[in-house]
Amino acid sequence: MTHTTDNAWEHPEVQLAGGGYIVAFVVGLALMGLSLWMVRGHVFAPTGLAVAISALAAVAAFVQCVLLLHMTVSRTQVWQTVALVLFIPLFVITIGLTSWMFHGLYRRTMMMPATHVARPATPTRPRGA
Amino acid sequence: MSVTTSSTLDAKGSPMWSSGHGHDVISTKTLGFWLYMLSDAMMFTALFAAYAVLGHAFNAAGGPWVRAVAHAGVAFQETYWLFGSVLAYGLAMMALKKGNRGGVLLGIAAALVIALGFLAVDGREVLDLFRMGALPERSGFLSAFFTLVFYHGLHVVVGIAWMAVMLVQVASVGLTEKVVYRLLNLRLFWHFQAVMWVFMFTFLYLRGAIV
Fold it and tell me: The complex's ipTM?
C-alpha cells in the first residue's frame, strides 16, 4: 500500500466522496419541505410546531454532517468528528442559556409590552381634583 | 501482552513514519481548516443567540416584526438553490476522486452558477424588505435579523469567489497536492453552509409563520 504524492486525488480524504451527496440533497430538501408544509398547514399548536421543526432541523443537520461532511469514526475522520462533537454543547448552551435567561428577564420586567406602546402617556386624573 | 505493547509503541513503526513523509499535508491542513470552520460556526452561534433575544415582539419597537419580514416560501426557494449548489460541488468532488479534471471544472462551474441563483433570490428579497421600510436600523429585532442574513450571504459571496479562483487553478495548474487540499477545504466550507442554512431556514424563516 504505497502512498503516492504524484496523484494527490488518491488521498483517502478525497476518496470519501460518493453518492451520499445525492442522498443528502434529497433528504435535506424533503425534510425542509416537510417543515414548510407543517408550518403552512398549522398541523400542530404553535409550541408543538416549534418542537417538530426543531427536531426535523436536527435530523437534517445530522444527515448532512454524516453524508456531506463525513463526520464518521473512521481513521481519517475521527478527529474532525471529535471536534464537532465537542462543539455541539457550546452551540446548544450558548443559544439555549442566552434565550432562557433573557426570556425569563422579559417575563419579569416587561409584563404588557403592547399596552406600554399603545397607551398614550397622559396620566388619568379624576375630574375635579 | 506487555511484550507486544512495547513493540507497538515504537514511533518509527507507526504508519505515519513508514508512509515516507513525516506528516500528511492534506490531512493536517483539512483538520486545521475544519477547526477554523467550527470557530466560524461559533460566530453563527452568537448571532443566533442575539436573534433569540432580540426576536421578542417588543424589540420590533412598533416596526415590522418577524411575520412581516421572514417569508418561508422565498426561504424555501433559497433552500433548493443552496442545496443544489452543494450537490453540484459534491459531484465535482466525485469527479476529483477519479482524477477527472474536466469533471471537476464542470461541477464547480455548475455550483458557482447555482450559488449565483441563491444570491439573486436572497438579494431581491432583502431589497424588497428595504423598500417596504424594514431597514436594519429600524429596530433591535431587524438589526439581529439582517445581521444573520448578511453574515450568511457574505459566506455565499466568499464561496463564489473561492470557486472562481479554484476554477482558474484547476484549469491552469491541474490537480496537484496544493490544489487538491484547497478543493477539500472549499468542500468543507461550502458543505458547512448547507448545515448552517438548515438552522437559518428553521429558526429565522419558519419561525415567522409560527408566532
Answer: 0.85
Split into its structural domains, chain A has a count of 1
Q: How many residues appear in chain A?
A: 129
> Which pLDDT value is given to residue B13?
54
Segment 63-102 of chain A within 8 Å of chain B by CB: 64-65, 68-69, 76, 79-80, 83-84, 87, 90-91, 94-95, 98-99, 102
* Length of chain B, in residues: 211
Residue A112: pLDDT band by 50, 70, 90 thresholds?
Answer: low
Q: Tell me the C-alpha distance between B97 and A74, whole Å.
A: 18
A45-57 average pLDDT score: 93
Give me the residue from A5, A80, A117 closest to B31, CB to CB. A80
Q: Which residue of A has its CA nearest to B62?
A: A117
Could you tell me the domains of chain B? 24-210 (1.20.120.80)
The reply to whether A109 falls in a domain is no
Minimal CA separation from B98 to chain A, in Å: 7
What is the domain range of residue A35?
17-69
Instruction: Report if residue A65 sits inside a domain.
Output: yes
pLDDT given at position B148: 96
A87-92 CB contacts, 8 Å cutoff, 24+ apart? A87/B38, A87/B41, A87/B42, A90/B42, A90/B45, A91/B41, A91/B42, A91/B45
pTM of the model: 0.85
